[in-house]
Structures
1.
Amino acid sequence: MQFQWYPGHMTKAKRQMQEDIKLVDLVIELVDARIPMSSRNPDIDELGKNKARLILLNKADLADERVNQAWMAFFEKKGYFVVRMDARSKAQIKPVNSVILDACKEKIERDRRRGIKNRPVRAMVVGIPNVGKSTFINSFAGKACAKTGNKPGVTKGKQWIRLNKSVELLDTPGILWPKFEDQSVGLKLALIGSIKDEILNIDEMSLELIKYLQKDYPEALCERYGLESCEDPLKVLEGIAANRACIKKGGEPDLSKAAALVLEEFRSGTIGRITLEKPEEYDV
Ligand code: G4P
């Protein structure tokens, strides 16, 4: 299966991000906890060098908790601050503020030594589409936020959301483009629903998904669909069609319907909390 990505304004977006990053102390990068590597663009490491870095493993509610922990350790070892979360949950987002301050400790300390008091740290949110950037900004900033900076239409300037006396957030997130180093990255992005389904082959995708599931989550797969074994992906799809009454008019199994069903149930977390890539595949 071929995946392609034509980000219309990629160069412009990159230039904009270079400019925006100059204004902040901290880059908050959201990744999808189900595919933390495939949902990040490593170019951000170059763009964000010399800045404090925080990775938010978002949609952690859909990912395998044991693997979430492993990914946190992986990124922490590489020098990032890391929080795992469900960006829709205000309670889970709350600790992010203190982690931001922790990540910017050196800058705060430097300011203090220079006699600068109460200067808030400035942060911006970045990530590829659909990882939850807007959800996070909305939950994190909430209603109480006051926008600071220039008024739109009066002067062209950045809008900063004053979160509290210590932190300001750039109000628009930086959009990174996915990086398709190999086809498996494209496939995993498609599986979590980050690429429009219209351009994809759902039947093929679901067979690939079943391969991942039978390798790492065979019990969840068998249990969800009442299967005795899940050795052969095509047989699994046929089993799902039979057990879920996916049947065409003539009585034939409707494999496409079963394929769409398994994909949808994976995306919604109904099959279980599943992670498609593990840190040990990336540790060198
Ligand atoms: P973006 O700005 O990075 O593009 O992402 P956005 O916030 O729009 O979030 C994309 C979808 O992901 C939204 O679903 C949002 O509710 C969901 N989402 C964000 N964070 C989390 C999380 O931590 N856990 C879960 N389970 N879902 C999360 P949506 O509006 O319903 O759209 P869609 O899912 O139908 O595309």
Note: Residues 71 and 279 are 6 Å apart (CA to CA).
2.
Amino acid sequence: MELVKKEGRKVDSVELVEKYLKDESYKDALIIQSGIIGLSRQFLHNEGFVEYLPVIVSTITDPLNRDVFEAQIDYYGHKYYITKSMIVQKQVGILVHDKIFSFSPNLRLEREEKAQSGRHLIDFVQLDLEVKNAKREDIMSLMEDLIIFVINNLLQDHSELIKKYHPGLSVPKKPFNRISVKEAKKRFGDDYEKIISEKSTEPVWLIDMPIEEREFYDKQNPLEPDTLLDFDLIYPEGFGEGISGGEREYEYDQIVKRIKLKGNNLDSYEDYLKIARKGYLRPSAGCGIGIERFTRYIMGLEHVEKTRLFAKVPGQFSI
Ligand code: ASN
């Protein structure tokens, strides 16, 4: 990894505290966020899910295949990676319980340019869930129900507060519209994700990502082998991507083929590949919904930084 010569901006800790005390939107966003967490948990418990505690360090984590810096810790002569997502642990978790979720803190050391996107933090939490033997349709439908349940309840319990920040927010209608990446590129060009988000007034599913654009664990579509059986959810009104997920690869040969296709080194996945080689992995599907982004969308805030205390914006250093 190349060295970063430029120094990131250090945020003054006292100024930060003063900002939290002066700007009421932090306090208000945290009330909504607390509601999102409680309602999502209630919804998933009602659906028969078991909550797992998050895994923070592991010998293996999501490769992500994006331009982020590696975060690793040397410990007794071995390397621990800081979790970028719990995808691998979820695939093992569903062998123990069929339906699982976790509020999983993820560290992704994004480039500082990402600070401008309005939706990137290097340290964030996703509600990550996985279901054994599920298809992507099942997870998309489940997430539609979860979003509708959460927004419906929040609009009832905190209508004045939400109206103050996001007066146009309404409960989305099921089923959400969907569009394939191929179709989206044809209609809107390379900037399709941004355009779809800005043009929409309801959330939209973006499906069938090109195989080379996503990680090895999202399942290749056998009927259309250049695409995956996966999905993203795009929030309306320009709030951008908020969920990603899909069906999973679980067969050893296919996983190896997919890791090689991404040009990744098989050795780094040995702990995972050993489990796959033994034939333990099972079909599953799942996804993750970013808690800060969900809060930002509901509150209609300009930047995710406003949705939590101690937010870590790419390129900045703070308490
Ligand atoms: N949580 C995502 C999923 O389940 C993976 C990710 O965060 N990269 O597909």
Note: The domain at 9-170+250-317 is CATH 3.30.930.10 (BirA Bifunctional Protein; domain 2).
